[in-house]
Specification:
- By secondary structure, the chain is of the alpha+beta class.
- It has two domains: 1-158, Sandwich (Jelly Rolls); 160-266, Homeodomain-like (Arc Repressor Mutant, subunit A), CATH 1.10.10.60.
- The protein contains eleven helices and eleven strands.
- The protein has helices spanning 94-102, 117-129, 134-158, 162-172, 181-188, 192-203, 207-225, 230-236, 242-253, 257-265, 275-281; strands at residues 4-8, 16-24, 31-33, 39-46, 48-53, 56-61, 65-68, 74-78, 85-92, 110-111, 285-289.
- The strands form three sheets. Strands 2-9-4-7-10 form a five-stranded antiparallel β-sheet.
Length: 290
């Protein structure tokens, strides 16, 4: 490959964005690793290639996504006639595997024609920022990608109509923006009554309840993986205020946001609070080719 990234090691954050780029392979490239030490997600922008991971081999092409999972043994190489061009990012931390396991894709290596390329570009934009909120923002984008891929796997067997699948994806990408029922009506070209009735019939819940469940999932991620205040999380996920958010969170989970954070961050220690601290922690690096 034409690019080598440096992956920070030794950080105690539960989720870390540690590298990424857009690369074009050479026909002779061939990368092989054992017991891979991080997790990499790659989207094929053009061309084709082959991935062999933990005994599973698959031919991949433009529009496919694949994972190089932590601790995997793998080898991958481009098609010699049409070498692939890819956008990728590298992540690490216990939250990465927890999310993959929670959505049932910890052992899934590739996804056919799943789109999602905008989330990869978003990761690279976050990587370029190099500020104290970088890892928290990356964790949210990674969560959205995992949701997107998990739902893509379900679509064939879900029985959901194309209209509801589009509405569900619309809501999944707007967890941090205000969404009105009128927005759904405009997007789907349906009446309010028809949207509510059809969404409830196919998913079991109305649109506003689905959106709130997804926002609470993101809230748990932020509480566990960032140092954002309760007020900041409530504002980011578009709850009316911190009090309302805390009441909803406790009613749905049985514990307050503060209690949830305490039970899931015990033993983490003090995390870096700004760019200077992050730079000191990232002086020790290990090279990872992608």
């Amino acid at each position: 490959m034409r690019k080598t990234d440096h992956v920070p090691i030794g950080s105690r954050l539960p989720f870390r964005l540690v590298g990424g780029a857009i690369v074009t392979a050479r026909p002779q490239d061939r990368i092989q690793r054992t017991d891979y030490e991080v997790t990499t997600a790659e989207y094929i922008l053009a061309g084709a290639g082959v991935l062999e991971s933990n005994g599973v081999s698959c031919a991949l092409r433009q529009g496919d996504i694949y994972f190089l999972h932590k601790h995997s043994n793998h080898v991958y190489y481009p098609d010699p006639v049409t070498p692939w061009r890819k956008i990728f990012f590298v992540v690490d931390g216990p939250l990465v595997e927890q999310l993959l396991a929670a959505y049932g894709i910890l052992d899934v290596h590739h996804f056919r024609q799943c789109n999602g390329v905008r989330l990869f570009h978003r990761m690279l934009a976050i990587l370029r920022r190099q500020d104290s909120s970088q890892h928290a923002q990356a964790a949210l984008v990674f969560h959205r990608l995992i949701i997107h891929l998990s739902q893509a796997r379900e679509r064939a067997a879900s029985g959901l109509s194309a209209d509801i699948l589009k509405l569900r994806d619309f809501l999944d990408t707007r967890l941090e923006t205000d969404v009105r029922l009128a927005d759904l009506c405009q997007f789907a070209a349906m009446s309010e009554a028809h949207i509510i009735r059809k969404f409830r019939r196919e998913t079991g819940v109305p649109p506003h309840e689905y959106l709130q469940r997804r926002r609470l999932e993101s809230a748990r991620l932020l509480l566990r993986g960032t140092d954002l205040t309760i007020k900041q999380i409530a504002h980011r996920l578009r709850f009316a205020d911190a009090c309302y958010f805390s009441n909803v969170f406790k009613r749905r989970t049985g514990v307050s946001p503060t209690q949830f954070r305490s039970s899931h961050t015990a033993g983490r220690g003090t995390e870096p609070s700004g760019p200077r601290d992050n730079q000191r922690n990232e002086r020790r690096t290990a090279k990872v080719e992608v």
